């Protein structure tokens, strides 16, 4: 089975930056996508960005464009989320998710806490 390990969260002041990592293992499939999500207390989990494992194409929700950047190191099977200009409202648990195509299997990693102080 696919396993994901998210890391890189922490406490940062508003305006600061963090880089999250999502290390994936247990797959040989090339047709997949890895996405980043977050869930703030009392709120639903929301999708932030994803990257295709086959062609490296990326997508972002509009509110993240310009502040967050997703990238991948294929040699390390690791996907990164660079987060800049962080705001207190970015405080949440951040998760990565692996989508395998075409069968649609989904795997979640354990989250990493990001706390942005004002």
Can you describe what's shown?
It is a single chain. The protein is mostly beta strands and 118 residues long. It is 0% helix and 55% strand. The protein is built from no helices and eleven strands. It has strands spanning 3-7, 10-13, 18-25, 32-39, 46-52, 58-60, 68-73, 78-83, 92-100, 106-108, 112-117. Strands 2, 4, 5, 6, 9, 10 and 11 form a seven-stranded mixed beta sheet that branches. Strands 1-3-8-7 form a four-stranded antiparallel beta sheet, with no helix packed on it. Strand 5 (46-52) and strand 6 form a beta hairpin.
Search tags:
mainly beta, seven-stranded mixed sheet, 55% strand, globular
What is the global morphology?
globular
Number of strands: 11
The largest sheet is: 7 strands, mixed
Low-confidence stretches: none
Number of helices: 0
What layout of secondary structure does this protein have?
Elements: E1 3-7, E2 10-13, E3 18-25, E4 32-39, E5 46-52, E6 58-60, E7 68-73, E8 78-83, E9 92-100, E10 106-108, E11 112-117
Parallel strand pairs: 2-11
Antiparallel strand pairs: 1-3, 3-8, 4-5, 4-9, 5-6, 7-8, 9-10, 9-11
